[in-house]
């Protein structure tokens, strides 16, 4: 009897433990304790579900209708190392949302609509975060400015990879990445960047990969080239940009030839404009368009010649004019005297009439005559 009771109690305890494990998985989610993984994919969730098991290391909450996340969203998940929140329509990330996730190394917020990013949104107590994916996640330029503040205040000094691709970025705020001293990979592809400037890439000495493909770069200015030169370890990708191969692109083309070991796709870079240069290798542009300066020098010489010829013609005309004046000096002098005498007579006539009109005696005589 005693042995039967012990066996029954063991079964009850086992069932209770089994039930607790089963109950620990949130509704509409799939949990695997063996894989330390929880998936809540495309379940129309409106918030982060409660009751996520503490053993979870990999959490996938994607394809839902979650609008905001905050500090209360991930309590009790100190073991979490990888968190994917992509495609949830998240618009707001509050400060300290991930603060207690001591083991968090990878955070994916791609394909969201981040309009408000609070200053310490990405702060993690142990500074364990290594990968941050914000591809197709920023709602507008205001959110870009919020992101800059958050990158500065969230203590991301150990971040290794940052993905900002597909965000319609036209230009980057000054010193945007200056607080990410350990950054090794920066993805800026498929945006609308028109220039690299304002010390955007300063203090990224550890950067190993920079992806600038599929942007709107027509050339790279001297300032942009200096910024790229400040990344001695970085391999750069520049493909699929609308490079305009006209006069002035030579410094970029020459720099490209010198930097082929760092520009991974240098040999595939082609001119997009003008039509006469389309599909011409940028590596060959330096020698092809140096003629711009030769043509400019020829144009300057022609312009200078025109100025000299014009000066000679004007000088010749002036000389003829002076000669005519000299030959007709007597007649001109007589005409000047005649004009002077005529003007004097007219002036004396006006002066006489003025004296007549202003004499009171004459006005009285005129009045008596009328009577």
Automatic annotation (TrEMBL):
Pfam families: LRR_1, LRR_8. Residues 1-23 form the signal peptide. One of its GO terms (biological process) is dorsal/ventral axis specification. The keyword Nucleotidyltransferase does not apply. Keywords: Leucine-rich repeat, Membrane, Repeat, Signal, Transmembrane, Transmembrane helix. GO terms for cellular component: plasma membrane. The keyword tRNA-binding does not apply. The chain crosses the membrane at residues 307-327. Residues 24-58 form the LRRNT domain. Residues 241-293 form the LRRCT domain. SUPFAM superfamilies: L domain-like. It comes from the Eukaryota. PANTHER family: LP06937P, TROPHOBLAST GLYCOPROTEIN A-RELATED. This is Trophoblast glycoprotein 1b. The lineage of its organism: Eukaryota, Metazoa, Chordata, Craniata, Vertebrata.
């Amino acid at each position: 009897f005693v042995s039967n009771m012990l066996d029954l109690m063991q079964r009850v305890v086992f069932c209770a433990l089994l039930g607790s494990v089963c109950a620990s998985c949130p509704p509409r989610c799939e949990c695997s304790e063996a894989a330390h993984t929880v998936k809540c994919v495309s379940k129309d969730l409106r918030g982060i579900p409660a009751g996520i098991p503490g053993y979870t290391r990999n959490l996938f909450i994607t394809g839902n209708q979650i609008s905001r996340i905050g500090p209360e969203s991930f309590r009790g998940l100190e073991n979490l190392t990888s968190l994917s929140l992509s495609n949830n329509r998240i618009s707001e990330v509050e400060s300290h949302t991930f603060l207690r996730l001591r083991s968090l190394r990878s955070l994916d917020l791609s394909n969201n609509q981040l309009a408000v990013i609070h200053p310490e949104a990405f702060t993690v107590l142990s500074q364990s975060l290594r990968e941050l994916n914000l591809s197709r996640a920023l709602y507008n330029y205001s959110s870009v400015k919020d992101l800059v503040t958050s990158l500065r205040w969230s203590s991301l000094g150990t971040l290794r990879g940052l993905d900002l691709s597909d965000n319609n970025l036209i230009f980057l705020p000054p010193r945007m990445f200056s607080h990410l001293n350990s950054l090794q990979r920066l993805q800026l592809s498929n945006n609308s960047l028109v220039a690299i400037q304002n010390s955007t890439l300063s203090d990224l000495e550890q950067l190993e990969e920079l992806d600038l493909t599929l942007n709107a770069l027509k050339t790279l200015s001297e300032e942009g080239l200096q910024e790229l030169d400040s990344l001695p370890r970085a391999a750069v990708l520049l493909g699929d940009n609308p490079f305009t191969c006209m006069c002035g692109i030579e410094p970029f083309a020459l720099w490209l030839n010198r930097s082929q070991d760092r520009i991974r796709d240098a040999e595939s870079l082609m001119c997009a404009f003008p039509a006469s240069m389309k599909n011409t290798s940028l590596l060959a542009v330096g020698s092809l368009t140096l003629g711009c300066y030769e043509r400019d020098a020829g144009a300057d010489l022609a312009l200078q010649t025109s100025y000299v010829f014009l000066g000679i013609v004007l000088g010749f005309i002036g000389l003829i004019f002076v000669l005519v004046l000299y030959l007709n000096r007597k007649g001109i002098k007589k005409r000047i005297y005649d004009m002077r005498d005529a003007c004097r007579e007219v002036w004396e006539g006006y002066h006489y009439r003025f004296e007549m009109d202003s004499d009171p005696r004459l006005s009285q005589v005129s009045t008596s005559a009328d009577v």
